[in-house]
Amino acid sequence: MKRLLASFALAAVLSPAVAADAPATAPVLLTGADLYTVSHGVIPAGQLLIRDGKIAALGRDVAAPAGATRIDLAGKRIYPGLIAANSILGLTEVSAVRATNDYSEAGASTPEVRAEVAVNPDTELWPVARANGVLSALIMPRAGSDGVIAGQAALMQADGWTYEQMTVAASVGMVVAWPSARVPDWLPEDRKQRVREGVQKKRDALDRALRDARAYQAARQAGAVSVADLRDEALLPVLEGRMPLLVLANDAVQIREALAFAAREKLRIVIVGGADAWRMAAAIKAQDVPVILGSSHNLPMRRWEGYDTVFAAAGRLAAAGVTLAIANDGDAMSAMNERNLPYQAASYAAHGLGAEAALRAITLAPAQILGVADRLGSLEAGKDATLFVADGDILDIRAVVERAWVAGREVDLANKQSRLYQQYQRKYRGEPKG
Amino acid sequence: MLSTPKQGVFRGQAALVNAADGGRLNELLIAPQAALQLAFEQARGSDDYPTSLMGAIALIRQTFLDAQWQQQRLGWQDKHRQAERIEANDALDALAPALAGRQPVIFATEDELDYQRALAIAKEFSLRPILAGNGHEYRMAAGLKSAGVPVIVPLKTVEAPAIEDPDLALDVSLGELEHWAWAPYNARVLAEAGVDFALTAGALKKPDEFWPALRKAVEKGLDESVALAALTSRPAAMLGVDDRVGTLERGKRADFIVADADLFRSDKARIHETWIGGRRYEVGPGPADVRGSWTLTWRGANGPAQLEIAGEAAEPAVTAGGVSMPATISQRQLLLYPPGSLFGRSEERVSMVATVDGDRLQGRVPLPGGAEAVVSGQRTRPAAPAAAKAEARPALPAFPLRYPAGEFGRSGLPAQPAAVVVRNATIWTQGPQGRLDGADLLVENGRIAAIGTGLAVPRGTVEIDGRGKHVSPGIIDAHSHIAIARGVNEGSHAVTSEVRVGDVLDPTDITVYRQLGGGVTAAQLLHGSANPIGGQAQVIKLRWGADAQGLRFDGVTPTIKFALGENVKQSNWGSEFTSRYPQTRMGVPEIMLDQFLAARDYAARRAEKGAAPVRRDLRLEALAEVLAGTRIVHIHSYRQDEILAFVRIAQRLEFVPVFQHILEGYKVADALADLGAGASTFSDWWAYKMEVVDAIPYNGALMTAQNVVVSFNSDDAEMARRLNTEAAKAVRYGGLSETAALDLVTRNPARQLRIDDRVGSLERGKDADFVIWSDSPLSTLAYAEQTWIDGRKYFDRTEDRAEQARIDGERARLIAQILPERVKALAKKGDKSAKKDDAAAPAPKPVGHDHDHDDGFGLDRLRPIYHDGESIHLCSGLEAH
């Protein structure tokens, strides 16, 4: 019995981490482009060597090894792949059609569910985002209306025949949708009451889940567990500090409560969303909690707040020294336009964050927060060759992404939309539909 | 009291009744049909008309028209004896007195914007309006005065907002905080402005809150005589019964009250008698006032004794020889507990029961052992009248009222300098002059006077340094739902062309200001897409600080919203919405065609001379205007099949619509170009519902290439603030030139709205609606520094910084001021709920169907003005309703 349990635990930890088959391809030397390394500034007109799926070398003077393919990219820019650090790409296709939605499981607490297993490798949405440089994404299960622990998030890349090949790292965080105590004053009293009751239920569910998991942990250590409990099992890495909680929290009360919770329960958390985070930046910094800030393309939450309150949030957090990534909002409307990630980072840039920090917040910063900075997030030797070529500043809408590599494989930037574009240009040239 | 029916839009006739009990009904009635009662109420169900404020107003308008028509038609048939007779209609008959001005019409209002809405209807039908207020009248006192409209003002207690938790206090707006400070002065402000008003207890929870609330108003500076008039002569005059009631005059009804003190100031004042129609009602007589100096005498030991009675009439404080004793008074019975020593006894206290009759009393003191002292008393001196307190009139709150209230409000429209010049900027004229570097823009009296380099300007011209800046025409959003009050959709019926967004403009919507911060200067406010034929739209300029009327883009060609596809066939509304026609894309064009044919027939009948008066039908009238070319259809559309089907209808009926959304327009751009139809689309939305799975961001460029006039719109309160960079997506996807891309959000929407003679490009003679950007407007790093409309600066980033600082300061100051009251209220509430907890647990509430799902639909209608500006009515998204 003990052996069975041990092998189960091993499987839970290792199973998703199946590496994509690395095809043996010739080395590729990208030459002449400005290299936006993120980690080490810009290398003007440099070279970058891709070999065995990795960045083998980069600099001003990298020689092409024998058999290497040279690609001249003079006047272009090379960036590390953008990381959409809060997404449901692949978990939804047409959100109005329920059958295509797989992002929200039933139940108040579902820590056992794993995002990667439901990612559709043939989604039409990701190729559209990929064509704009979004080469990896943190795919997060979402909580339903009564849910609080939504499940495990996975870091996926924009290429692979199967979900396993797309998975860069499974179980990088446990998603918790922090209940919001905000009750609009204009709601009728009976509705207010129902909202409050709902919030309390969620809080209770979260407490209960942790209590149960701790009891389970103790029982397990005492050898008293005979049949594995998937839910409790899933929370063990959280209790052991190996997996952070990705806490979706936007308003001040949510964030304050989440911080207190993390301190009390001695758990690692990442604040995701964080619209009000700048209001308590010092407290967040003091607890060393990273923030994956939601989209700048939201209205201020409150009437009295300045028109630029949301735009200015990232700059304020950065100024306070908070570890900061920028993402979209992880809903269906964001999934269809994950490609706009760099532009919403740009709005933060324009209102106090600055362009360099904005770029870092959608590349290296999320990689670091999510524990994959050894593979992604910057142009550095030894990291995955997950990068793209643009003809201008990726934060500017007018720039066009021309080529992209994921783990050393060049990917096709054509997608459903570009194909329809080609097709209907033919219509107006008088060609048959075919 | 005026007894008013409480439900519906046309609620019925209010009756003035007296409070006499018993008797026959007609003895109670002073005026049986004193007023017609109206309210802008919306139906509760999602398919009961009207679901929206604009629907309620349309219903009122159509009903009054019907009543007018009925009178005309009856008059006509009297002269044409052979003609067909119409059926009697008592409901319409009942409106005749109001329409003839013989009966006042009371409009119930919910917020400060409803006053204007009610007055507009009153003016349209020459009614005699009375506004039933809501507690915000003080904000509009000048307007109410100049309108000369009587107002029934509710006495109200405004609870202190919940600000004790600093995190939750974030959710309280400055407007709400200021209302807390101003609301107690409501009646006083009206009095000082000279508004004709009556006071009502109707908004109070319990009748016994009335006098305290009234005294509070007086304490806050409401003149007593005005308060009295507002409860007597003013309401009598408003209801036209001042010949009978309202004043104490010879010949009027003997309706009056007798009180023992100043009812308006003293908490202890009591009404002793109420006379109604000459009948006396003794109100459970209050305690006799025993205050003063008394001499008590009795047989036996000691005596006489001197008593001094002070305190309140109801709570006398009694002393004898400087020693106080417990005392209570109930009506005429005085109960005292004098020390036993007074009667020569050793007991600490004895009791004395006395009956008071004016200045005399008779009492007994039962003494231990069965004896009894019989006491008689005589008042030797009445209580000294309390020194009249110097009436310090409290000062009004120190901060001025702004419009809109609180944050970012203004005390007037921004100034219009005689001349303004922006120097040495990159100017995107979007006109024949193209894009000019290092150029000047000269504005005079709200219009563009010249564009060029090194312009000579009149003396005194305001100079703005434009070096390094870009100037563009103001952004125009051809598809917006901001600034619409209480419902964007009249989603009840499939055809609602009678409803008008223009009736329900909300100039206080904070998104108006926020969009100025994104360079937006004009927008078309469209009805939603819940039905095939929606409501009439309104084009506005974003004149933040103006009232509803002031937002309107004057002289614009009227427009109307139509819709195709999933929303109108209710595909995403849930499984219970399967019976309203149409449910398919087959039915949609047919219902439209059917209505157009009916409208054509209607217009012909209306034009006929000599026939019976034809009932005005506002629903068909709007469609007849479309056929006449005086109203433009803006039609929500996605798939190429539905687009083409409507193109064919438009061709058959010879009108030229503008297609909204039109995400598959690129597939039939040739047909659009043939028709000359405009296309107003999103830059890059797609995939979220079935009808947008083939949407592509190249849509705008492809249609432009086929010579369709294309604009990019927002349909979203947030995205509108970035339409300049949405336009840049047409450079990214499809390779439009930068100028052509900026046209998508400036010149082209102006052309689609037929306002391009006024706005959309920077050309001599056009309105001075422009934006000064920090960088190229197509750059994601650019932000608007200044936004000008009509040569007035409506947004300035530097001024905005100062305003944000003022708001922070004001909020902090008011929160500190409110905190003590709030703490007190919480303590009281804590007491109450603690007591409640002791009682049995309340019975579980039944779960009503209408509460089972929060769809954002029911709730939105409950939301007051000055709400947070989150958008919940995407007419493109899943929530069409």
Which CATH-level-2 architecture of the largest domain in chain B?
Answer: Alpha-Beta Barrel
Q: Which residues of chain B sit in consecutive blocks of at least 5 with pLDDT less than 50?
A: 836-858, 869-874, 877-881
Supply the CATH class of the domain at 82-373 in chain A. Answer: Alpha Beta
The name of the CATH topology of the domain at 82-373 in chain A is TIM Barrel
Give me the count of strands of chain A.
18
Percent in helix of chain B: 25-40%
Q: How many distinct folded domains of chain B?
A: 4
Count of alpha/pi helices of chain A? 13
CATH superfamily of the largest domain in chain B: Metal-dependent hydrolases
Main sheet of chain A?
Answer: 8 strands, mixed
- Unreliable runs of chain A, pLDDT <50, ≥5 residues? 1-20
Helix and strand composition category of chain A? alpha/beta
Question: Which whole number gives the mean pLDDT of chain B?
Answer: 91
Task: Describe the protein.
The complex is a heterodimer of chains A (434) and B (881). Chain A is built from 13 helices and 18 strands. Chain A is α/β, with parallel strands linked by helices and 434 residues long. Chain A has a domain at 82-373: TIM Barrel (Alpha-Beta Barrel), CATH 3.20.20.140. In chain A, strands 1, 2, 3, 4, 5, 16, 17 and 18 form an 8-stranded mixed beta sheet that branches. In chain A, strands 6-8-10-11-12-13-14-15 form an 8-stranded mixed beta sheet. Chain B folds into 4 domains: 2-249, Metal-dependent hydrolases (TIM Barrel); 292-382, Calycin beta-barrel core domain (Lipocalin, Beta Barrel); 421-474 and 762-778 and 787-795, Urease, subunit C, domain 1, CATH 2.30.40.10; 475-759, TIM Barrel (Alpha-Beta Barrel). Chain B has a 9-stranded antiparallel beta sheet, with no helix packed on it. In chain B, strands 20, 21, 22, 23, 24, 34, 35 and 36 form an 8-stranded mixed beta sheet that branches. A 7-stranded mixed beta sheet of chain B has the order 1-2-3-4-5-6-7. Chain B is elongated, with a radius of gyration of 35 Å. Mean pLDDT of chain B is 91; it is low at 836-858, 869-874 and 877-881. At the A-B interface, helix 4, helix 6, helix 9, helix 10 and helix 13 of A face helix 8, helix 13, helix 20 and helix 23 of B.
